[in-house]
Design goal:
This protein has 256 residues and is α/β, with parallel strands linked by helices. A seven-stranded parallel β-sheet has the order 3-2-1-4-5-6-7, with helices on both faces. The chain has helices at residues 17-27, 39-51, 66-80, 104-132, 153-172, 191-199, 203-214, 223-234, and strands spanning 7-10, 31-36, 55-60, 85-88, 135-142, 178-185, 245-248. α3 runs parallel beside α4 and α4 packs parallel to α5 (153-172). It has one domain: NAD(P)-binding Rossmann-like Domain (Rossmann fold), CATH 3.40.50.720. 47% of the residues lie in helices and 16% in strands.
Length: 256
């Protein structure tokens, strides 16, 4: 178990990747602080982890609020006395639209949740990690920052800002023992994507097969497997890695 006894906060523990990371981190031995805006959802995840012999607490957090972010970090400290890892995956997706006609209000909101929310959470945990002399922050980003897609510009803009946040913090926190990295996710098989294919009606199955055939690994990577890259970056196996951007997409994007 590569995260044994580490205390890890996960933001954005909603359907799909967020839940997968919470459950997977617990299976790897972490004590997980499960966080999202929906208290019902995070309570269910924490209860499921506990039922399987893991340790978890559920703490509601809206990452657009500084006080919520600080309270989330405090809850981890109150329960376990330290914070070893932060996974920032809080999610908001604006409407699909080309940027030339996009809602500015929605763009501001996605930047606030994804990028500025990532900084709020980092500011909430950095003092503890600095005092400990160690810590790992992993920001969850997207393939769309590498491979632009029509209509995805608003979301990709926010995630690109998050990518830069990781790079900037990695340099600024040099010598503190705090590492900051990014995991860029591509198409992931899980509840959200299955819902997307279902919404396409009869054409959904054909499109799914087409997408799978275009990815070098031969299938759409499951979110539970993509989450393993995050555990690696959190773990001591990545002790010498900071400021890195790890592509997790089955070869859908081959980095230069």
């Amino acid at each position: 178990m590569i995260l044994k006894d580490k205390v890890v906060i996960v933001t954005g523990a909603g359907p799909g990747m967020g839940q997968a990371m919470c459950r997977g981190a617990a299976a790897e031995g972490a004590r997980v602080v499960v966080s999202a805006r929906s208290i019902e959802a995070i309570n269910a995840i924490a209860a499921d982890i506990a039922a399987k012999g893991g340790e978890a607490i559920a703490v509601r957090c809206d990452v657009s609020r500084v006080e919520d972010c600080n309270a989330l970090a405090k809850a981890a400290l109150d329960k376990w006395g330290r914070i070893d890892g932060l996974v920032h995956s809080a999610y908001y997706h604006p409407d699909w639209a080309n940027l030339e006609v996009h809602s500015i209000e929605q763009l501001a909101q996605v930047l606030d949740v994804v990028a500025v929310g990532g900084l709020r959470m980092a500011q909430a945990v950095i003092p503890t990690m600095r005092a400990q002399g160690r810590g790992s922050i992993v920001n969850v980003s997207t393939l769309a920052t590498r491979k632009p897609m029509p209509g995805e510009g608003g979301y990709a803009m926010a995630k690109a800002a998050l990518n830069q946040l990781s790079r900037q913090l990695a340099v600024e926190l040099g010598g503190t023992g705090i590492r900051v990295n990014t995991a860029l996710m591509g198409w992931m098989d899980g509840a959200p994507l299955q819902g997307f294919f279902s919404s396409m009606g009869e054409g959904g199955s054909a499109f799914r097969n087409q997408r799978a055939s275009e990815i070098p690994v031969g299938h759409i990577p499951p979110d539970t497997d993509c989450a393993k890259a995050v555990y690696f970056l959190l773990s001591d196996y990545a002790s010498e890695i900071t400021g890195a951007a790890l592509d997790v997409n089955g070869g859908d994007w081959v980095a230069p």
